[in-house]
Amino acid sequence: QGALPPGYKLRPLSSDDYERGFLKVLSVLTVIGDISKAKFLERYNYLKRHNHEYFTIVITDPSDTIVGVGTIFVERKFIRNTGLVGHIEDIAVDKNQQGKKLGLRVIQALKYIGAKTGCYKVILDCSEKNVPFYEKCGFTRKEVEMAWYT
Ligand code: ACO
Question: Is the ipTM of this complex over 0.95?
Answer without folding.
Answer: yes
